[in-house]
Write a structure and sequence with these properties.
Layout lengths: L14 E3 L6 E6 L8 E4 L19 E4 L8 E3 L8 E5 L1 E7 L9 E4 L5 E3 L19 E3 L10 E7 L1
Parallel strand pairs: 2-4
Antiparallel strand pairs: 1-7, 2-6, 3-4, 3-5, 5-6, 7-11, 8-9, 8-10, 10-11
């Protein structure tokens, strides 16, 4: 479920640079998605087989990114549940920051739509495998922490 306090840009996805070759895919929204939300793939296992003919567009289903280790891109449009949404995987976007964001640093998301510097995890879980946070892009500008601050982030997911 998407956080009630989603920190994404209130103006939606604000594309600054797309490299003149937008990298997008179309997916079905499994819940209400607003433009500017970071999203992750969600769905059943074995959605596709070994042949291209096994793939249909509705195999890709997205929800708001709720886990800092999972992100497939940024929603470019609003979509209701079971509606189509375009997701960008590359490009520079104005994004809210939840912590200090340093120009040139790898950034991660906080599972509520904001970004900050990717910090190294020092947790040891014994024998249990745990997914670690992953970078979703690089900060192109610097920002202080706070829900009213933004940074230009070049996504690369």
């Amino acid at each position: 479920m998407v956080s009630a306090s989603q920190l994404s840009n209130p103006l939606g996805a604000q594309v600054v640079l797309d490299g003149e070759v937008p990298r997008t895919f179309t997916a079905k929204a499994r819940e209400v998605i607003s433009g500017g939300f970071l999203v992750q793939i969600s769905g059943a296992t074995s959605d596709v087989g070994s042949q291209v003919s096994s793939y249909v567009a509705s195999d890709l289903q997205v929800i708001g990114a709720q886990n800092s280790a999972l992100c497939n891109g940024i929603a470019l449009n609003n979509a209701g549940s079971n509606e189509w949404v375009t997701v960008a995987t590359r490009g520079a976007y104005l994004m809210k920051t939840d912590s200090i964001t340093s120009g040139g640093a790898l950034v991660q998301h906080n599972a509520s739509g904001a970004v900050g510097n990717l910090l190294r995890s020092n947790t040891l879980s014994g024998t249990a495998a745990v997914m670690d946070e992953r970078p979703i892009g690089t900060a192109m500008t610097t920002s202080a922490s706070g829900t009213a601050n933004f940074a230009l982030v070049y996504l690369n997911v």
